Amino acid sequence: MNTSSFSSAPLPGKGVDTAKTFILPDKCFQKRVGCAWGRGNKFTIYPRSQTVSKTPSNTSQDKLLNIRQDILLFTPILRKLVNESNGTFLSLQKAAETAKVSDNQVEFLKLSRQFRSIIRVCIENLQEAASKEENGIEKNNILSHITIFYSIECIWHLCEILYIDNIPGDIVLPYLLEWVRFHFPCHEQTAAQLLEACERGSEEHKDYWDTVVGMVVQGRVDVARALLKLHSAGESNEFKLVDNSLRSMPVYSVYGGISTGEFTISWKHWQAECRSKLSSRVLASQPKLELIMRIIIGDYTAFESIRNKYSSWFDILGGWVMFTAPWSRRHELGGAAAACAGMQASPRSHLDDMVRALLEGDLHQVIHEIQQISDNGWFATHLTDILFHCGKLNIMDKQQTNVTSRLRESLILEYGCLLMEHKSLWSVGLSYLASCPPEGLRRAELILERMPVETEAKAMRIIAEAKKHGLIGVAQSVCRCMSARHLSAGRLGGALFWETLLLDTLPLLESDEAVFTSNDTYEIMLCLELRSSSLDSEKADLLRLALARNLARTALAEGDGTEEQAQ
Amino acid sequence: MGELTATNLFESQTIFADHKDLIHDVAYDFYGERMATCSSDQYVKVWDSDGQGGWRLTASWKAHHGSVWKVTWAHPEFGQVIATCSFDRTAAIWEEVGDTAASGSEKGLRTWLKRSNLVDSRTSVTDVKFGPKHLGLLLVTCSADGIIRIYEAPDVMNLAQWTLQHEIPTKVSISCLSWNPSLSRVVHPPMLAVGSDEPNTTNAAASVQGDKTTACNGKVFIYEYSESSRRWTRTDCLSSVQEPVNDIAFAPNLGRSFHLLAVATKDVRIIKIEPIAESAGTGNNGSAVRFKCEVVAAFEEHYSCVWRVCWNLTGTLLASSGDDCAVRLWKMQYLNQWKCVAVFKNEPLPGDSPPLCRPHTTYIRMAAMANPSHMPFH
After folding, report:
1. What separation in angstroms does the CA of A188 have from each of A173, A184, A208, A321?
2. Which residues in chain A are contacts of B350 at CB distance < 8 A?
3. Inter-chain contacts counted by CB atoms under 8 A, chains A and B
4. Where are the transmembrane segments (chain B) (predicted)?
5. Cα separation of A294 and A298, whole Å?
6. Do B23 and A12 touch (CB under 8 A)?
7. Beta strand B111-118 with B306-311: parallel, antiparallel or unpaired?
8. Most buried residue among A311, A349, A387, A391 by CB atoms closer than 10 A?
9. 10 Å Cβ neighbour count for B50?
10. Which helix (H) or strand (E) is A419 found in, with range?
11. CB-based contact (8 Å) between B269 and chain A?
12. Residue from B204, B185, B272 nearest B242 by CA
């Protein structure tokens, strides 16, 4: 469980320090400016003055500047990511419902992996697009997208290991090594080449020793041993001694039949033996073998000396844990992270900060950091959601009130609203908003009724989606606006088309099973009274009668139901 | 590892409005697909989105005999209708005629007809706003002599007929007003907030007839409509705002029990207005306090007079602009604190970029000022 208090809250008035400043082009405005919001992320800046001007001002005063946010997720190639992750998100909400009555961790893990495979497919698509792209700027854009999603997958994977996966005995090492090997493959190709060639005297290869050491640090002990055998002096006593030390290293397995306590004792015994071999100076003639021995006894200076061979400290994290505390449980990795990160003074990257926070178990910081990624909140939203459902998120504010669900909801709402601005992703956005009632539906209402309606088909789709989520008011508003549009165009027929929707409700009102709730019925009544002039009085009366009858029976039925629910 | 946050950017597009004098207001229609501008050149212009991010001028006409202060769109349910108000002491209702559904590309300029001229004011009409559509087709105006007027079109199909329903004297100059957009008529009665640009002197203290509260030096007043008395009554005066007010805007309500009001005064303020449950049956004058008002944010970063405040559609972002020639975006964090997330301003040094000469330009990415800390929009 992660508990952290919200300490980074800015004091009122201090917030500007963190805000990014953008330069208005062309020196547009010299004095007062005004602003007006359009839809979604668009707004307009205009020059403005309150005073009555006697003389016409200079021409720079008549420019308007439209500003909009550049939304990465709206790139066509990322469409698949948005759509597929939506499916997984919805499955997760269902799984979370089930989890209320029974443990559903296995399902959560499955869905977490599904998210990661969606990201990987996305990265593959981006890589393919990058290889085909000839425009330099476009290519750079795609490459930066790859960086973003690569980092996301890397963090998600580690998060999955630390918080979602079910790890036997909670011993994290094998999983951590897997993470390092997967995301920071180093020397793997050289090792494969050398082993395939299988030639004695492989030390002639310029990367031979780096590769052997790299395999040890990644915990691929068998590969390291096989490589050592390819050395021309592989049969010498020194090599045999190192090989023996590597071979005899105890490896913990939860199914191995020994307790962690027993394992710890035998492992410490093994390391003590290695240490005594090293101090006997038998390896003095072979400094590289000596380095390997120093690494496997967990000598900090040995790790420090190889650190500059790697681009980041993540590469050696697995090795460090393996040779200092292989029994580490998953929430005991903060110290190892600090040790590895401290081996070289290098500028901290954003990914560094995220991995550090994650290993230290500070999920609140992790979420804060991933919100800075320019993926428009895709990652923060989905990761926070899954961690929340797994019960692993516990964020407190200054008053020690649990605000986890508020954080999750605010991220989902924001993400949903963002997607609703897109001309074809809006229904995806709607499904996110609908998962956060009541505020999500209130926001959906505002956005839906303002969706530009270019065609009748679009109007029908909006009405259908609105009805699906019980937003009857939106459906009616869209109908009325379409009516108004047809009327003003002088197409009475079209407007009546929309009026017949009212009459269409007649058979539904008279059906055996009540289709409309009492609230729906009220709304239709309202509609009818607003538009009664366009129906002839006989039809209107007929509809009124049907509405009254439907209201009576639904009110009765619902009266029973709501009382029961209220208990 | 590349920069993960580099692509969090904004794009901008310049439109040459070709007004012959200062622009006073820009208003988007309900869908954000049309834009109306008004200016001291007495003209109103309507711009339509071309669907590809560009804007096309579709109408331009001389609307008044004085500076046009504000322009506002009616709900599309009532057709394509705008209202304007002017220094010439009138407000006007305009309707677009002809087939508005046809895409504009094959058509030339559209025709807007003046449906009604509201001439009740004896001074400059400073603001005009259509009411929330669930109240019918309502229009409110305010004027420099401090009179709020509420008009209604009894027949929504006849925009020529407007009846003056209410005339509310405030005795202070009123510069701006905002309707409370709350959809729930049951929970919240129809509500208006008005702001005064009267200079801050104690003599200007408002003492309005029928106002039971003691003299209040505030510059923002809340009016509510009572169904039982069929009157608009001043139910509060926000004493926390003492300086002249230039603009005022209610945030979308989103089903909350309280209202958020943004105020452009010497700083940017966000005020939480929470109705207090009334003790049984005493009505408005039974309890002295109708609302619990709390200033939830006061931002002084403009270091100057703030001219405009404007909410995005869902009320999650507030844009403010001031005399410092900068626009700032404020965002509510999940723990209800407000935070500046972006600033837009001119280059600090005189730049020599040549003015663009095309009437419409495409969106270009905006440069960010060097700033070590990064803060994304979202």
Report:
1. 20, 10, 12, 20
2. 27
3. 352
4. none
5. 6
6. no
7. unpaired
8. A387
9. 14
10. helix A404-420
11. no
12. B204
Asked whether A514 and A557 are in contact (CB, 8 A), the reply is yes
Token pair of A382 as six digits:
């989905």
A561 exposed, middle or buried (CB, 10 Å; 0-12, 13-18, 19+)?
exposed
CA-based nearest residue in chain B for residue A491:
B99
Instruction: At A21, give phi and psi (nearest 5°).
Output: -105, 130
Inter-chain residue contact A53 with B371, CB threshold 8 Å? no
* Contact between A414 and B4 using a beta-carbon 8 Å cutoff: no
Show residues of chain A in contact with B319, CB under 8 Å: 35, 37, 43
Report the distance separating Cα B216 and Cα B218, nearest Å.
5
Interface of B with A in 121-180 (CB under 8 A): none
What are chain B's domains?
11-309 (2.130.10.10)
Q: Which residues of A226-242 are buried (b: 16+ CB within 10 A; e: fewer)?
A: bbbebbeebeeebbebb
Give the closest residue to B182 by CA, choosing from B250, B276, B275.
Answer: B250
Q: Do A372 and B99 touch (CB under 8 A)?
A: no
Q: CB atoms < 10 A from the CB of B248, how many? A: 27
Per-residue pLDDT in tens (0 to 9) along chain A, 567 residues = 332 322 233 333 333 346 778 887 766 566 778 889 988 888 898 886 544 444 444 545 578 888 888 898 999 999 999 999 999 999 999 999 988 888 888 999 999 999 999 999 999 999 999 999 999 989 998 999 999 999 999 999 999 999 999 888 889 999 999 999 999 888 889 999 999 999 888 999 999 999 999 999 999 999 999 999 999 999 999 999 999 999 999 988 877 778 888 999 999 999 999 999 999 989 989 999 999 999 999 999 999 999 999 988 999 999 999 999 999 999 899 999 999 999 988 788 889 899 999 999 999 999 999 988 888 999 999 999 999 999 988 888 888 888 999 999 999 999 999 999 998 999 999 999 999 999 999 999 999 999 988 888 898 899 899 989 988 889 888 888 888 887 776 655 555 585 666 666 666 676 666 667 777 777 777 777 766 666 677 777 877 888 888 888 877 777 655 444 443
Query: Cα–Cα–Cα angle for B343, B348, B349, nearest 5°?
Result: 155
> What DSSP line would sit under B295-342, residue for residue?
EEEEE-TT-S-EEEEEE-TTSSEEEEEETTSEEEEEEE-TTS-EEEEE
C-alpha count within 13 angstroms, C-beta hemisphere, residue B286: 9
Query: For chain A, how far is it from start to end, CA to CA, in angstroms?
Result: 34
